[in-house]
Amino acid sequence: FLFLLYFLGIGKTTLIQKVTQALKSSGVPIDGFYTEEVREGGRRTGFDVVTLSGKRGPLSRVSSDSSTSRRECRVGQYVVDIISFEQLVLPMLRNVNLGSDAEKKICVIDEIGKMELFSQAFIQAVRQMLAGSGTVVLGTIPVPKGKPLDLVEEIRSRKDVKVFNVS
């Protein structure tokens, strides 16, 4: 059974954190990551990836350079740090269900969005996890707007996914 949340607006990370804490305090094995705003002087300067085991690293930062390198992955004013993202997230995704059936965990993925989808290795790891039996995912995907994101639409259309709109 796959469980995927679809969030609108602000507060999705706070909700993910509260659900995660409730599951952990109930003794449910859980692993994964969430994204968190980075603010300096009251201004958002980027996003960090925070794993449920407490590791943190940059996902993106505002670029002060208006010229863009071909190799730079950007979403609006943010430059995505794919290397940092992959170093934090990929080991967790690949190991989340290596134990016995009794040790299977819930995997939190906040979120599967434009920034994260610059990583082909992340896309592959998510697909492998979804193809595995017994994986329970608590995740967030963006509201459809503009050009569809292939993996997001693939997830949204799965028969074993329950999508909730939260506003």
List keywords for this structure.
single chain, globular, hydrolase, 4 helices, 9-stranded mixed beta sheet, alpha/beta, 167 residues, Rossmann fold
List the helices and strands and how they pair.
Elements: E1 2-7, H1 12-25, E2 30-40, E3 43-51, E4 56-62, E5 74-75, E6 78-80, H2 82-95, E7 106-110, H3 120-131, E8 136-141, H4 150-156, E9 161-166
Parallel strand pairs: 1-8, 1-9, 2-7, 7-8
Antiparallel strand pairs: 2-3, 3-4, 4-6, 5-6
Helix pairs in contact: 2-3
GO molecular function, one term: ribonucleoside triphosphate phosphatase activity
Protein name: NTPCR triphosphatase
Organism: Ramphastos sulfuratus
How does this structure look, described?
Helix 2 runs parallel beside helix 3 (120-131). The protein has helices at 12-25, 82-95, 120-131, 150-156, and strands at residues 2-7, 30-40, 43-51, 56-62, 74-75, 78-80, 106-110, 136-141, 161-166. The mean pLDDT is 85. Strand 7, helix 3 and strand 8 form a beta-alpha-beta unit. It is built from four helices and nine strands. It is an alpha/beta fold and 167 residues long. It has one domain (2-165): 3-Layer(aba) Sandwich (Rossmann fold). It is globular. It has a nine-stranded mixed beta sheet with strand order 5-6-4-3-2-7-8-1-9, sandwiched between helices. Residues 1-16 form the signal peptide. Keywords: ATP-binding, Hydrolase, Nucleotide-binding, Signal. InterPro entries: Nuc-triphosphatase_THEP1, P-loop_NTPase. This is NTPCR triphosphatase.
